[in-house]
Amino acid sequence: MKPAFLLVSTVLSLCMPPLCTTIAAAADRTETYRYKSTVTTDADGPLDLIAELNYNDAATKAPIAVVMHGFSDSVAHFRNFRPNARSLRNKGFFAITVLMRGRAAEEGAADGVRDSGGVEIHDIYDAVEAVKADYAHLVDPTNVYITGYSGGGGNTLSALTKFPDYFRAGAAFFGMSDYGFDATNGWYNNGASAAHRAILDKDIGNPADGPMVIDRYRARASNLASKNNPYSEIHLFVNGDEKICPPINALSYRDIALAAASHRGEFNNIFVHNGDSSGKTYQDFNGNGAQDGDETQNWPHGPPNADQQAAAEQWFLSRLLAGSIPRPVMNDKDDLFVAGYVKTRKFSLWLGDGQNAAANLRYDLDNERMTFELRIAGDNKKMAGTLGVDTARMGRKPVGVFLNGKQVAAIAAAGQWYEYRGMRDGDVVELRAVAKHGRLVSPAVLPLLPILALLTWSIIYEKRPKCMRKV
Questions:
Q1: Total domain count for the chain?
Q2: Same domain, 278 and 399
Q3: In a domain, 442, yes or no
Q4: Domain around 420
Q5: Biggest alpha carbon distance in the chain?
Q6: Which residues contact residue 317 at a Cβ distance below 8 angstroms, ignoring those fewer than 6 apart?
Q7: Per-residue pLDDT, 11
Q8: Residue 428: its pLDDT value, please?
Q9: Has residue 110 got a pLDDT over 90?
Q10: pTM, two decimal places
Q11: Which positions ≥6 away from 38 have C-beta within 8 Å?
Q12: Do 266 and 368 fall within a single domain?
């Protein structure tokens, strides 16, 4: 008689096919991925956008790496940067190469109109959020990294300032932090070729055409907004003799942030790495006393080769993979420079059409009161914005919404995302939590307040003695 365990194993072997036929082997994947814009529509609805994914289908909790292509139009955007994306995949990342709106690649085209660092930066956020939802079983949604080259480096800098608590780390290779706002150092007059300027003229306008165009360049100036992000670990790689996107882009990004620091060390998160095109400068990462290829600090313009990419990533990538670079958490009180728009987990602000205005936003958040003060930068002071606020920190209390000290709305119970539309220059919007037995004016009654005030005055007037009434 067979022992029981042998009998069970025999039955199982008869009933079950071999494991190799039921469990697919882990594999590296390259896929064309389509997703929707959450901020822009066309005649067919939300823009249809496109990205390329490089990942291993057996991964779990893989950190997300966003890879951004260059500035000029090219059908080879995915192909050119596929080696860089696959290198990140091979190191353990889920890599997303975003094709910006209005561009076409060999694998397909993205809807929309390109705008050189304006609303199109939101396509990056939408791509990552879509991947988090569709590949939730593979990715760590809290660990997101972004990197880009040339125009993609510019997109990286913009994303880090428009979404300051979203990315744990960012690496920009010879990116532009000013497309043309500064007449001397802006990219339009300092590095951009005639072909580049023709694209900028179409996407944004010629900076010489007046204040309205300058406002559009201001809305894309990530160096002016670099103070928004003292949280992410930010690495800027550029050779000292870089001509197309000169080092001033990296230096001004860092230096403007440092000038805005409220305390020593606030912006120790920003690192500028000056490369040497002679190939003689290296960082001895492995401590062997020799210059290895993947230690040479030289980043010529274009997609980096394996050694050039590794020579940059060794500064931080192992810590990012290990999760030791913390997830950003916004300060509860600060001043931001909103270049077009800003989106955080605590609040958001969208100015104008998202690419034609900038402003200074002072905010102060606690569990009982949240205050936002807006000052429009630029000539068009009539520009309005939409403020969004997460009220969850106020518990389930009733909340009053006040504009410049006057109640304009009420929230029955906090805990939801609230939007105030029409915030203008000089406005102060305040959300006040009300104690359990407190009282707020009902939103339905607010439009009637002027009429009620008039009726109250009329009643009081009629009850006065005739001798006290004004004839």
A1: 2
A2: no
A3: yes
A4: 333-450
A5: 120
A6: 91
A7: 33
A8: 98
A9: yes
A10: 0.89
A11: 46, 122, 126, 129
A12: no
